[in-house]
Amino acid sequence: MPVPLALTIGEPAGIGPDITLAAWHRRSEFRLPPFYVVGDPEFLERVAHRLQLRIDIRTVDPEGAAAVFDRALPVVPLGIEVTAPPGRPDDSSGPAAIASIRRAATDVMEGRAAALVTNPVAKNVLYRAGFPAPGHTEYLAQLAQQANGKPFPTIMMLWSPELAVVPVTIHVPLREVPTRLSTELIVDTARIAARALAARFGIARPRLAIAALNPHAGEEGALGEEDRNLVAPAVERLRAEAIDARGPLAADVLFHQAARATYDVAICMYHDQALIPIKTLAFAEAVNVTLGLPFVRTSPDHGTAFDIAGTGRADPSSRVAALRLAARLAAGTPAGADADR
Predict the structure, then answer these.
(1) What is the pTM of this model?
(2) Domains in the chain, ordered, with CATH?
(3) Quick one: which of 10, 67, 177, 249 has the most CB atoms within 10 Å?
(4) What is the rounded radius of gyration, in angstroms, for the C-alpha atoms of the chain?
């Protein structure tokens, strides 16, 4: 039997349970790898009933998930009753989401699951439950460090068959980006991306396009000094380390079709510089991949969407893409093996 993927419950009041059930219900159509959900079986039964999906929920241990996957959705119980209604997190939401992440990550690190696939969470709900990290990724890095006795610097990559992007700075106000950027941060981010693309994605010599911060790459300082003083030295250092990096490249001409064919990942200076192009090109199929962890972790590239939770309107495409990509990376199959990339 194949080793299954471990899937977290995410925020129970969001669309995570909806897209998980919808994906399993269409598992043959989507050619999904075996997975199990770490959550409350009775809660998932209620969600399936609300969505009018006839799904057999089967309580299992991780080792038994693959054997039942074809006929029932395997669920590893948390021992936490989930009571949150659609769109309205309650006191059960945060503890269930945190416990699910911890259990699923532990299963992967101890070999009971092949990779970790997470559902969207609501940070404010996690914080109220005592979440010990700024976000999902940082918590996974903490768990990995606790298990392995060493730190794991991580970065976020958004991947699709059309485009892969990595933001150097993420959730910071735009006005703070220039002060947060440094040559060292750009180099560290690019190094992690290059190593992961080689080790996980099967790209022997990854090609990195390093985006400029300012319009026209700063116009030799006329439109800002950051590209000349921070980005260009980072590119020089990367090239000195035999990493195939080019830049700083003007972002306004970096994402058209011909340009995308010249690189494997775009290293972007801030959140929207990275996420606007990939969400324009692949809104429903983009996958969030955490690079730098000692295991594979993917997630849909969207949030909890409380406004449509429980309605059946949530599109499972990104959930499907995250499951399929996780299985390929865990198996050592190049990510583009069944995609036009």
Answers:
(1) 0.91
(2) 5-153+293-331 (3.40.718.10), 162-276 (3.40.718.10)
(3) 10
(4) 20
